[in-house]
Structures
1.
Amino acid sequence: MKFFVAVALTALLSFASALFFPWWIIGVAAFLVALVIPQKALAAFLAAFVALFILWVVQSLLIDSKNDHLLSSKVAALLPLGGSYVALVLVSGFIGGLVAGMSALTASFLPSRRTSTTLK
Amino acid sequence: MRIVAFVISGVLTIVLIWFLNTPLQVGKSKTPCLGAFVSPQHGFWQNAEPVDEDFNGTLKLPGMSGKVDVYLDERLVPHIYAENENDAYYVQGYLHAKFRLWQMEFQTHAAAGRLSEIMGETSGGSNFLKIDKFFRRLGMVYAAEQSLKKLEGDPVTKNEADAYTAGVNAYISALKPNRIPVEYKLLNYKPEKWTNLKTQLFLKYMSFDLTGRDYDFEMTNAKNIFSAAEIEMLYPTTQDSLQPIVPKGTIFQQPSVVTNRPAEADSVYFHSTDTARAALIIKPHKNNGSNNWVVAGSKTKSGAPILCNDPHLGLNLPSLWYEMQISTPTFNAYGVSFPGAPSIIIGFNDSCAWGVTNAERDVKDYYQITFRDTSYQEYLFDGKWLKTTFRDETIRIKGGPDVTEHIPMTVFGPVMFDKSYPDPSEDGKSYALRWKAHDASNELLTFNRLNHARNYVDYIRAIATFQTPGQNFIFASKRGDIAIRQQGQFPAKWRRQGDFLMPGTDSSFMWKGFIPSRENPTLFNPARGYISSANQLATDETYPYYLGGRPEIFRGITISRNLNAMSGITVEDMQRLQTDNYNVFAEMARPALLRYLDQAKLTPDELNYLRKFKAWNLRSDPNQEGPTIFKVWWDNLSQAVFSDEFARTTLPLRWPDESTLLEGLLRDSAYKFADNINTPIVETIPDLVLTAFKSAYKELRVANNERRLAWGKFKDTGVRHLLKLPAFSRLHLPIGGGANIINATSGDHGPSWRMIVQLTKETEAYGVYPGGQSGNAGSKYYDTFVDTWADGKYYRLLFLTAGEAAGNDKMKWKLTFTKA
């Protein structure tokens, strides 16, 4: 349960803060959520990774389907990912997930966990 | 233990974010900042426009005075209906920025020598610092500054440019960082504010593109190895088969400007030898040129004139052109505009239509300067030492220290080449550049007036002040008038003045005045009922001034021949002619080649190729193999004829034109340059035609094995993104044509806008360009017209009043602009 709350909260906070801040705000968001919802290292990493992977993949897919893959195919040829928009979507999700996961992992190691009781 | 894990994990996270937030060197280029680039809320995904994008909107903007309605039709062409002119130009600027911002800025950065700022010193194998230095030394910024004063000194163009700039900036100011064009994200920089200077820089870039190609260094080098008579043979100033714009036999009035060749020209100019070094000169594409023609009502089925124009320029995405209609209470014009400048450039209005082709006149000359010493403080002129002024041009470089070009300025103009540029180890000679584009001129005024023109008198008044780049302005009106004038402010030159580098120690070789506009070659309602121009010489040699430049002949011959023979002409006839692939050059060359070729000396397989060539219908269609055989054979012949003589120097030379060799062959089988000077025997044209065919055969067999013997495959036309990114380009298009053909489509170059306007009571106009209205590679409208263009098809242009537009079902969206 805690895991899914962390996933949902990370995705939500990342989405909202990215409206106003540069892309790396997702790291901050994942870090904060991991502070607020303390989990074991692996769980913290996975929750944030899954959150951002899903957030970025879903957003890319929505944009991409409305765009008929016009730009993703071109960018996937450029990067180079052999022109595969599927690969590009997965790479996007992986990068977002990795940054968030690492940030959450870092937070999970934080010795002081004074906020940990607040959400229980 | 946890603290160690925390620190390690924290450091890794920060390194990861840094890594994803920094452009990385991969091969010769840099990556975008990957994290930002793939973020769906920040990166390229934000540029992926929904294919059913809703372009409707209401905008309240500062700087407007009234209301403007813009209807966007199904091809995303905007139709602007404004209550006053300033608002119209404001909205034109806004729309240019909305659909073409990156390109506008990139092109003006190139013109201003600022590419290193965004690309770094080198990237993808290009040395951008070298390119920037070239444009700085050429005086592009100087030229734009000079002309900006003139633009802003005229209230008409001042208001127009100010409104346009304000419109561009209104868009930029409201642009969210995540919505900037994808190229900014790829190269990791941000748009800056637009200025009137940038508009001038763009116009000067067009001047460079259309008058920047000169051969003064190459021609000077040629004097070292060729006699004056040989130079006349290799680089003639006219051609036997020329069909000038103004027909042969026309009587010209006495010149009002007298051109006197300096007495010492023979000794210090024509017969002097000089080794001009191999200067770094970026030359505009050699095929830059165009077709335009107009037929009078007497030759058309409708009884109304039809005007046609297709400017041949580099084929790029986003396109150089942006199509639009601008309608105000004072004028109503439709056509193509330059993203970066106000007005319609080529198009039509309620009363008339106009188009342009390049005049190909030489308005760019060099003078050798004698400096007193290497400080360049003083130079010799008319027996005195004059003080040099200096212009410092600082080039900023991404990831490196600034570089400053310290350019001496003389009475002729900027010193383009000296011991510091392009190569410090060279011989230290200095050459000042006299280029017409450096003069203060106001070309925007011409387009403003053309947009307003109602008749022939308005048209002449509009173009009379146009200075550079000289154009053949063609015209037709609903009253039935047709006309052309080769207009520019052209220096009155004596024969061959400026073909070679000139002495700069006194005033005797300077330009001594300009030809008045009324003495420029002009045709008005000729009895034959048509007028055409295709970059050939404007007149024969009875015209009292020297035309110079780089004349073409073949397209002009084809067009005149067709128009002469045609009657009852329809729009469809004109579409067929404008996309015609007939090769008149091959028609003239084939009999000569076949006459000289000793077929008995060919192998059976070589004869197969020869049979294909003989059977060819002379059309350079994409599926034909004849054009490939002809091209390869001819190029080999040209090499065989000239390369031995040209190998006598390592200095750059100018290769003779195709028409020069052809006319040499047609005149005389004992062509002077046929003999290979490196062999004891005397070769003749038949010998060379045979060896050229045999070497061509080897190339053709390779092409055949690679399945690119068909002309369309062999020439391989593509429309390339300005950054040469293949993924953003449209490559390998199935299209015929080529150099010397009306459909002048070569590998990366060709008809950049095809327009046909029939001036019936209700204007009937057609057009197409190889691009799309949106500059966004993530838009459905990025390359919409490319296939239509390659197919030789056209779009009917919607030229409607505001009332008609509101009810027209092809108008898909509406944007309303009001003042904030």
2.
Amino acid sequence: MRVGARVANWPLAWKVPLLAAGLLIGVAYVISQIVLNRLESDQENNLRHLTSAYLDGLSTAVLRSAVHADVWETFDALDRARDRYAGLKVRFAIVALPDGKVLAASDPLKFPVQSPVPADIEERFPTQDGLTIDATSGRAWLTRSLREEGYSVGRILAEIDISELLRVRKQVLATLVAVNAGLALGFAILGSFALRRMLKPLSVLSGYVERVRAGCADPIPESKRQRISREFDLLFDRFNAMALALNEREELASRLADQEKYAVLGKLTSGMAHEVNNPLGGLFNALDTLRRHGDDAEVREATLSLLERGLTHIRNVVRSTLVTYRRGSGDNSLRPVDIDDLRLLIEPEASRKRVQIAWVNDLHGALPVVIESVRQVVLNLLINACAATPAGGTVHLRALATESALTIEVGDQGPGLPDDLAKYLVGHSDEALGTGRGLGLWIVRRLVADEDGEIRVIQENGLKTLIRVTWPFRENLSRLERAKDSLSMEAIHAE
Amino acid sequence: MPNEPGCVAVVDDDPIMGESLQRALELEGWRAVWWHTGQNAVDGMFEICPDVVLCDIRLPDMGGEEVFRTTNARSRRPSFS
């Protein structure tokens, strides 16, 4: 099973030639078998004809002497037949009488006259007239009955050496195997080269498609399109059109994200103005107090402390706004205060909606995530949570970090996120995209996906919504990106 | 018998505005109280009965107008929002 899976992963440029070679070997095997069978059949037929002619001649020559049991005449006939049929390679020939005793044999020392034919020799011969072939020992045995006027007067038994025929058969087999193996190997190598050449554009295309998957939609350059077939030329054209469309879409998405960021700023502006204006009024009160009662040291000290606190608050609000909307800060380290700052931005909006904020920030030290992206995502989620939560309700935020990731949860007490938006947010469906709703969530999904993060939506009885976003730390991300880059470059160079 | 100073209530969730107003009013000789939320104001109004109420229009739990309507039904004290 594992071997099968491994073979399935081999490149086409290997699999197809190997398959073709395998088929060629199969065909060659079948053809070789047919040729060998035919050869064997032809050889056997020739042998039958030859042995038949030999027995015809010999039986005619020995019949008379067998009737008269004339040993010398029979021996003489056997001797002449050996010279005449030398090409047949007769190892021995016996003329046996009906009682099974030897009348005469070509080898009288081995088969003396009037001795019984040895049982181990006798059993090799066919009981009826005919020919028995044993390819293993390279021998053939012939039997012919001698009859005179319907009476049996004896049998001719002859053993023939057929090793020459078998040698020829082996030679033919070796030639067939060598030729077929050579042809199969040659065609497999040629096929492999031809196929690799034909599939080269596919490897290039596969590499660029892999780069798209890794988030880089580069068109295929002209230098990679030389000497390719018309079909691949069209395919490359379509891929380049798709890469162009993807890049345009990415650019549009980037612009939309920027616009959405400033739209959020617009939403928060009135609340933030209130947040700055209120302490400003208090600061003017404090200034007036200083003018009228500044001579009193205790009043002066208390009023200056109030002024300092008010100015610090205004500075924090302004700084938080600047950090959120500063373009391309490139800061890849998030501190706990960067999350707490967001509270300053969302609190005016929450106050306007009369929504309480429950804030738990369990972060410690700097975390390797893209601060700008995380803050925009959290701010969008907080704005949505404030909008969904009815007056008197509470919006929850909890931030925590593990060894490898940052997790931020934003919960609300609204009526629940509609199914299509929830599915869209976690990336299971794009249905909500065409409805014109949820641009803020679209930005959230995109920003989180850009950082290889994960979003989960947890709905409790359809009455409360908790959105949990997890960002892997940049060290982990860098490893992931390196792996992706390496994969895509391997695919491109696998030519 | 010296005149009892008037009581001014400040209703504002902003700590700077609330504290500065309370301090200024006290320095000017008024008795000042500061409530952070509308509900605190509604509850405190019936206990203290301030002479003047200075109320922020936007409070975390209810608007200044709502505080005025709720308390005005029982009290005729003047109020500024």
